[in-house]
Structures are given as structure tokens and as C-alpha cells.
Design the sequence.
């Protein structure tokens, strides 16, 4: 989906405020994928950003984002996220640090998961969240970012709006500004006081103010909802797309 080379798009998005990047590109051989991961980490290092790798293999890093279908139990990396789409999948979260919930809005990259949740559906899932939630799927406008934050999302994950943009830096800056404006002190206080399951929250490296924007990159396919899931009950973005 990227209009230019993936490294260039990510660099421009990072310049605009993105601090987490989720790398998919699951069809690449491991050596090529690991080399791409190293290039993206080099882009993120100067801003204290984080590269998260989709799948259980962190590609020489320490952050992964897992599909809803597994593996269970999750690996014990420094940062572990999980894709979720409903209450059942959120209930399987155990030691993950965050979850993405999707699709919030209509999107071409999540065709296998039924109708979009909308802000109200997102809020219902966030209210029972065992961990902080990033809203994912079709988030492209400042108004959508604001609605996701107001629904209780800790942050948003964006794919198409950044990958397709003529100027990823400008798009990232616009969406990041919308997030910063939506996360008012009153909002943060209400979120802190809201009841939640006694699970751990986001690690200190996760932004809670200012930029909480995750860019998703890569080539992948949705995990079927009928896939067998084993392990203990019950986090992007983050997110599944082509370069």
C-alpha cells in the first residue's frame, strides 16, 4: 500500500509524530524481513520509538504483535500486543501489554471480521478491557481519532491513511495533533478512575499524552475467527497491509 519505499514512508510518518511502527511483510524470507526490521529500528532510535514485529519472532528485537489465534501462552518479550475483535478474544488476554481492537471503521484491510464496530462498539469493548486498547481499522481523519479517544482508546493505529499519503509527515502530524487535543486532563482523569480488570497496563515507553499513534506496515492476511485457540483465557497496528 505504500506509495513510496517503505523506509521512506515510515521515516516521514515518524517525523510527523508516529512513535510505534508495526512491521508485517510476513511473506518475506526471514533474512530479508530481519534486514528491513533493522532499517526501521534505525529510523525510530533517534526519537525513542519502538518497532513491533507482527508474529512471535521479534527479528532480533524485543517487541511483537500477535494474532488473535495465537500463540498461547504469549512469549515473554519486553512488549507484547495482541489483535482482538470481540469480548471473547479480549478475555483470552493474560500477560500481553496491550491489545488492538478492530475494525472500528470500514476498511479494506479487515474484510474478514464483519461490520465495523463504530465508536459505540469500541467503547463497549474498552469498558471491559483487561489491558489498554489501541483503536484500529479505517482511522483516517482527526474526527475519527477524537471519537476513538472519547470511546476510551489509549491510542490509535493507522495504516492506509499513512501508507497512501502523498505526505505521510503531514498526515501523521494532523492525526497526532487531534489525539493530543482529545486527551484532555479531564479525559485522563476519567480514564484513570474507570474500573478495569486487575491486569497490568502499558509499559512506561507507551505514550499517554501527545503522540500515541501507531503506523502499521506490511503484507498479511486476517486470521480466521474459527481458528483453534488454546492456552489461558485471554494487548496494535497495529494491522495488515501490502507495501
Sequence:
Amino acid at each position: 500500500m505504500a506509495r513510496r519505499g517503505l523506509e521512506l514512508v515510515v521515516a516521514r510518518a515518524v517525523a510527523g509524530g508516529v512513535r510505534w511502527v508495526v512491521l508485517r511483510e510476513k511473506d518475506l524470507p526471514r533474512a530479508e524481513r530481519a534486514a528491513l526490521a533493522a532499517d526501521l529500528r534505525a529510523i525510530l532510535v533517534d526519537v525513542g520509538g519502538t518497532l513491533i514485529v507482527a508474529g512471535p519472532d521479534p527479528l532480533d528485537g524485543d517487541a511483537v504483535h500477535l494474532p488473535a489465534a495465537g500463540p498461547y501462552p504469549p512469549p515473554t518479550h519486553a512488549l507484547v500486543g495482541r489483535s482482538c475483535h470481540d469480548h471473547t478474544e479480549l478475555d483470552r488476554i493474560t500477560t500481553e501489554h496491550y491489545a488492538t481492537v478492530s475494525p472500528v471503521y470500514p476498511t479494506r484491510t479487515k474484510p474478514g471480521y464483519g461490520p465495523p464496530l463504530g465508536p459505540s462498539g469500541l467503547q463497549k469493548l474498552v469498558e471491559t478491557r483487561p489491558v489498554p486498547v489501541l483503536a484500529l481499522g479505517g482511522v483516517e481523519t482527526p474526527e475519527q481519532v477524537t471519537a476513538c479517544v472519547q470511546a476510551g482508546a489509549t491510542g490509535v493505529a493507522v495504516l492506509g491513511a499513512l501508507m497512501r499519503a502523498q505526505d505521510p509527515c503531514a498526515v501523521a502530524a494532523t492525526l497526532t495533533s487531534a489525539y493530543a487535543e482529545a486527551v484532555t486532563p479531564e479525559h485522563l482523569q476519567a480514564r484513570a478512575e474507570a474500573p478495569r480488570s486487575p491486569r497490568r497496563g502499558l509499559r512506561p515507553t507507551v505514550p499517554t499524552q501527545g503522540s500515541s499513534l501507531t503506523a502499521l506496515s506490511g503484507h498479511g492476511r486476517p486470521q480466521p475467527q474459527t481458528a483453534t485457540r488454546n492456552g489461558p483465557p485471554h494487548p496494535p497496528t497495529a494491522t495488515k497491509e501490502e507495501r
Q: What stands out?
A: Residues 112 and 222 are 6 Å apart (CA to CA).
